[in-house]
Amino acid sequence: MHSHHLHQPKLTILTCGPNYSSQSSSLSMAMAQGSGSAGQKASVYLLAMVLCIMLFASSGTQAATYVVGGPAGWTFNTNSWPNGKRFRAGDVLIFNYDPKMHNVVLVDRAGYSRCTTPRGARVLQSGKDKIKLGKGQNYFICSIPGHCDSGMKIAITAA
Ligand SMILES: [Cu+2]
Q1: 96 CA to centre of ligand 1 in angstroms
Q2: For the whole prediction, is pTM greater than 0.70?
Q3: Coil, strand, or helix at residue 155?
Q4: Name one GO cellular component term (predicted).
Q5: Which of 25, 27, 46, 114 has its CA 20 to 30 A from that of 126?
Q6: Cα 149 to ligand 1 centre (Å)
Q7: Which residues crowd ion ligand 1, with CB under 5 Å?
Q8: Domains, the chain, with CATH or none
């Protein structure tokens, strides 16, 4: 068991991603123990490669990008837009709107439900704002008077 320094190069060959180093090292341990014929080693290596590829494919968790409100953009009655969508931390929201009419304010739960802006809240007003979702609850409103009350607000839960 303590001769794995011999097999160190295989570890780097088998590492197919930062998340899979534990699987990779256990695979190389299996290889270390099965010191049979060259053919056996090759098939174990092939199996390891296939497993790596399968793990990589099933992990398909690339960050998604969403245009808030769809083609209509960030406007009134956008509060139902998140319904039925599955968001993940790291996904990016794009808020498209006329900066002369609207803004985007990052608020908390109370700010969302009462349409109030917490002290020190981040206000975005470029008209093309990109925001990366954090894990858990994310709340956004437009703080122009009356707009949030007209549904210019969204609450998003990111897994
Ligand atoms: Cu507005």
Answers
A1: 11
A2: no
A3: strand
A4: plasma membrane
A5: 114
A6: 10
A7: 102, 142, 144, 147, 152
A8: 65-158 (2.60.40.420)
